[in-house]
Specification:
The complex is a heterodimer.
Chain A: H1 10-13, H2 15-28, E1 32-37, H3 44-58, E2 62-67, H4 72-85, H5 94-110, E3 117-121, E4 138-142, H6 152-162, E5 167-170, E6 183-185, H7 202-211, E7 220-224, H8 233-244, E8 250-256, H9 263-275, E9 281-286, H10 291-299, E10 303-306, H11 315-322, E11 326-330, H12 335-338, E12 346-348, H13 351-363, H14 365-382, H15 385-400, E13 406-408
Parallel strand pairs in A: 1-2, 1-3, 3-4, 4-5, 5-6, 7-8, 7-10, 8-9, 10-11, 11-12
Helix pairs in contact in A: 2-15, 4-5, 7-10, 8-9, 8-13, 11-14
Chain B: E1 5-21, H1 24-33, H2 36-43, H3 60-67, H4 72-79, H5 89-106, E2 119-135, H6 138-147, H7 150-157, H8 170-177, H9 182-189, H10 198-217
Antiparallel strand pairs in B: 1-2
Helix pairs in contact in B: 1-5, 2-5, 3-4, 6-10, 8-9
Classes of the chains: A alpha/beta, B alpha+beta.
Chain lengths: 410, 218
């Protein structure tokens, strides 16, 4: 299927929104952007770039995307960076930091940075700016991870590089540190026209449930998430079992096998143990999942859970809300930005809370429907790719006039 | 002579400041020292943030004081501020400071009460631009009012109140000055912006225009 064009989004977000995007693009004019990250496939950042780069080009902003190179040692180090910046204890020896910098220097020498705006995604290529001293263009660091409690030693090492940028972008105020440069908030976004989110025929949804042998004879409660302790799949099984004493339903747990995560096997074993021989609990393990099937499993569910204990942004919530599903989410990370408790879903803080939520929403289907409708609107307003296109256009304009609070376009 | 009304629109890029408050004392410091655009963001921009979900509170300050500090009386007073009475952000800021300061003085214990979650101070960069929509008379104005984006509506009916020399919204000003319909303008000006959503405000204006047109043809 051909990639959607800007015109295709008119049906989804409304012609007025696309019209204003094109007006903004005309003011931005003939500019160029280079996006730089560390992987071309897999992961939310690559997925997002794959969709947004062609759309920016369609609006006349010449946008390219480069991926930094490195050996296994470099990517092992940057994986440790990722975990440590999100709070994990680690001790980074001088040699480790030197290896990181050496690969950044190599990549800097290999890539060209002539574009008007350079957007560096995440910590892997963050030090590229160090070797670009006499720059005439703007450099922005887009951080997709939670920096609220970083490993201090690593953050002290990285911060001087980050403060060389003209600005930084974070996904939420919760994740942003104190910095000497301007910071902007870009919520992560979903693409309503990709396979994971586009409308599907009911027959296809039926086929997918049949394929995985999941009867649709009673309400289905689903959590789609990695088998990771922070997503609390064991807590989900417990909440389901507590709720099932009052309301007859099925639980569907769906997760990808994470090849690089030895913990996931152990968690999955604990989930299976907790589930016991309850035939109403269905545990699916994909490697990897097919986006359109995930879409079908969400659409075919009556209720979606994202009972995380700790979370980044959890775009699975936006995906479910977009499909007008009622969602119960853990009150952590980016989930409260998406779920306004009692209005676009339910926020919970415990297994008991999740259990009560399941009982409430499966018994009060009108209320569940209302939450789903409101949630759909919330996603339409804030968490769609078109909103991020707008943010990039505004960013180009704002970086021209960093000191001005209001920019009047003639 | 009728002056054509060209619709504008605005968009905001949210800025993070890294500054936060965990109690009323800290909130007061933030309000005293933040930029005008931060005050604007946390009061007027709340219209763009699904305000129906936060009923009855209508600004980020009031929502946080109610939900995170459980200081309901102060939240109600902050909600009752009539935004249409303030034609500068400085005067609005002073009113916020006065209300919180008085509450803290009358309820000293409230001052140090810690919030469940901090108040994150935001700022914003606004971009204002013209659209291709023009109104020539009341009929074309009404037709476009239904069609323009919510951001365009917000710009003319809410944001414009804070732009000198106007102390009112753009719509009623144009209807009064250019269409010479002062009674309709007066009715639009008297709409209580505190109790409607943006879509509700849009519908209310259309309703007033329809009522006015009907009365004229009678």
């Amino acid at each position: 299927m051909a990639a959607p064009t800007l015109f295709d989004y008119r049906e989804v977000v409304g012609p007025d929104i696309i019209e204003e995007l094109t007006i903004l693009a005309s003011h931005v004019g003939n500019r160029s952007i280079k996006m730089v990250n560390s992987t071309a496939v897999g992961g939310g950042v690559a997925e997002m770039l794959l969709r947004i780069v062609p759309l920016l080009n369609e609006m006349g902003i010449q946008t390219t995307w480069d991926v930094v190179e490195g050996d296994d040692e470099f990517f092992e180090i940057t994986k440790r960076f990722h975990n440590a910046l999100q709070g994990q204890e680690d001790d980074f020896q001088k040699k480790v930091l030197e290896t990181y910098l050496a690969w950044n220097e190599k990549n800097h020498n290999k890539l060209c940075f002539d574009e008007d705006l350079i957007v560096i995604h995440d910590p892997q290529p963050a030090a590229l700016i160090q070797w670009h001293k006499k720059r005439k263009n703007r450099w922005v660091w887009r951080c997709h991870i939670d920096l609220s409690h970083p490993n201090q030693r690593l953050w002290e090492f990285l911060k001087p590089y980050i403060e060389k940028y003209d600005a930084a972008i974070f996904s939420s105020a919760l994740f942003s540190p104190q910095l000497a440069i301007p910071q902007y908030r870009f919520y992560p976004a979903i693409d309503p026209l990709d396979d994971k989110n586009r409308a599907l025929e009911d027959t296809y949804v039926e086929e997918v449930f049949a394929k995985y042998d999941i009867p649709r004879d009673k309400p289905i409660v689903t959590q789609i998430s990695r088998y990771d302790p922070w997503k609390d799949p064991v807590g989900v099984v417990r909440a389901f079992k507590m709720a099932k004493r009052y309301v007859d339903c099925r639980l569907l747990l769906v997760g990808d096998k994470a090849a690089d995560d030895p913990e996931s096997g152990k968690i999955l074993a604990r989930v299976r143990e907790e589930a016991g021989n309850d035939t109403d609990i269905h545990i699916l393990l994909f490697s990897p999942s097919i986006a359109m099937e995930i879409n079908a499993l969400q659409r075919g569910s009556d209720l979606i859970l994202q009972k995380s204990i700790r979370e980044g942004f959890a775009l699975t919530v936006a995906e479910a809300l977009w499909k007008r599903r009622a969602v119960i989410g853990g009150a952590t990370g980016g989930i409260p930005a998406q779920i306004i408790d009692g209005y676009t879903g339910l926020l919970v803080h415990s297994v008991e809370g999740a259990s009560l939520g399941i009982r409430r929403l499966l018994n009060h289907t009108d209320f569940a429907r209302e939450l789903g409708e409101n949630g759909h609107q919330r996603v339409k307003d804030e968490f769609l790719i078109t909103k991020n296109l707008k943010r990039y256009l505004l960013l180009l304009l704002a970086l021209d006039k960093l000191k001005e609070g209001t920019i009047f376009l003639a | 002579m009728i002056k054509v009304f060209q619709f504008s629109s605005s968009a905001s890029l949210e800025r993070l400041t890294g500054r936060r408050a965990s109690n009323l004392e800290e909130l007061l410091i933030l309000i005293e020292t933040c930029s005008d655009s931060s005050i604007f963001y946390h009061t007027f921009s709340a219209f763009l943030k699904l305000r129906e979900a936060q009923v009855p509170f209508n600004s980020d300050f009031a929502i946080w004081v109610a939900r995170m500090l459980n200081e309901r009386a102060l939240a109600e007073k902050l909600t009752a501020i009539d935004l249409s009475e303030y034609d500068t952000l400085e005067s609005l800021r002073n009113r916020l400071i006065q209300l919180i300061g008085r509450h803290v003085k009358e309820n000293p214990l409230s001052c140090k009460k810690m919030a469940n979650e901090p108040f994150y101070l935001h700022d914003m960069t606004r971009v204002v631009y013209l659209t291709d929509h023009f109104a020539y008379d009341l009929a074309s104005f009404r037709a476009l009012l239904k069609k323009i984006s919510i951001y365009s509506f917000y710009f003319h009916f809410i944001e414009s109140r804070m732009q000198p020399p106007l102390k009112t919204d753009n719509f009623s000003a144009w209807i009064e000055e250019s269409l010479e319909m002062p009674s309709l303008a007066q009715k639009i000006r008297r709409i209580d912006i505190s109790i409607y959503t943006l879509e509700g405000l849009r519908s209310r204006i259309i309703q007033l225009i329809d009522g006015y047109s009907e009365a004229q043809t009678r």
